[in-house]
């Protein structure tokens, strides 16, 4: 697998480029309003994604008409072959940009005929796909470079033949920390399903051995514990609500969803799932949805919480409007992870050295909200949703992504493969297959951690 680096111009250096980018960011900011009118998973969402993607494609193509063509000066890093044709023959696009434009949904790139993600992995970063100098490399990068030169039995270089050189028997397995982002027990039970899907995927890889272990703490993880012990893990998977933002309901640190559970007072799992947007796709306006709206309105009126529904995508719409917004000034206002006893900020983890190379935040708008902050804090690769979606398709996507990672796929290739599988299962008009993106290195794979 190889990457083509596409370097975007800085803001205010190309008027035509800036205009198209402004249009794309504005349309991105209106997506949530469209989803509120028609449903999170309606076909109209795909139409909006297509519109944004076409403008992104036009912006790049009109700036550089050879941007998407493999030329010598564009070729970036090569991901070591793993012996799987679908992976090894891929060509990915690595968008290089900074500021707010980096948080746009680049996986929506559409050339007028098809989404580029149908055939090409896509990721964004502030640097090229090639690794930095040796002094700045992380250990996984050294192992990745080494993997490209390994040869096993009968001169074969596939991962099946070289895994014993990358993973000697006495080498400890990488650990993935699973963090549930809900404290209420019924909600935690739903989140546990996501952990089960990941654990099942990791144990069923094609190599006959697991490439990572999933650590699911029996007790709630606190911000202090995460900051102190995060350095012991090679990856973190955070599982939270993906259809609406989690919010602090009051100064005592309870979630707005916990309060909603008390007011709805429906113990059955299916009713609870529908009320929370955690599992069931609630279409149209039903009593549960109406109650959700009224409770949210009540919180806003009484000042118990800041209504963030749609506000975060609106921040994306403002990215690119000026050089100051593109410099990321508004990053600090974006939501952190909410744990049982409070929030955790990527910057605090980075200060404590607790950000591992791989972070998957399966939470509301994780990529535009947190991707830039986590990579600046030390993560090499960040994966998360670029659009709101229900938890069932989110969990399906997660399972497919970890299935590919367990087979040795690079993260960029794994996300592309998961998108393809979700598209086959849910249909091309279901937006889940275009709802995830990558920031950082698409080259990272579990066997290098």
Defining traits:
12 strands; 17 helices; 449 residues; globular; single chain; 4-stranded mixed β-sheet
Describe this structure in words.
This protein has 17 helices and 12 strands. The protein is globular and about 55 Å long. The model is unreliable at 250-314 and 317-333 (pLDDT under 50). β5 (175-180), α7 (185-203) and β6 form a beta-alpha-beta unit. α7 (185-203) runs parallel beside α16. The longest helix has 21 residues, at 43-63. With 449 residues, it is α/β, with parallel strands linked by helices. The two termini are 19 Å apart. The chain has a domain at 172-405.
Gist of the model:
The protein is 41% helix and 12% strand. The protein has 449 residues and is of the alpha/beta class.
Helix content: 40-55%
Gyration radius (Cα, Å) is 21 Å
- Widest beta sheet: strand line-up: 6-5-7-10-11-12
Structural class: alpha/beta
What percentage of amino acids are in beta strands?
Answer: 5-15%
**Biggest sheet, open or closed, and with what strands and sense?**
6 strands, mixed
